[in-house]
Amino acid sequence: MTTVQAQACRVIVADDHPLLLRGLADLLQAMPQVDLVEATGSGTRALAVIRDRKPDVAVLDVSMPDVGGLAILRAIREAGLPVRVIFLSATMTGRQIAEAIGLGVWGLLLKDYASDSLLDCLREVIAGRKWLPEDLVTKARRGGGVDIRSDIAGLTPREKEISALVCRGFSNKAIAGMVGSTEGTVSIHLHNIYRKLDISSRTTLATLFVQYQSQISDTA
Question: Residue ranges of the HTH luxR-type domain (predicted)?
Answer without folding.
Answer: 148-213
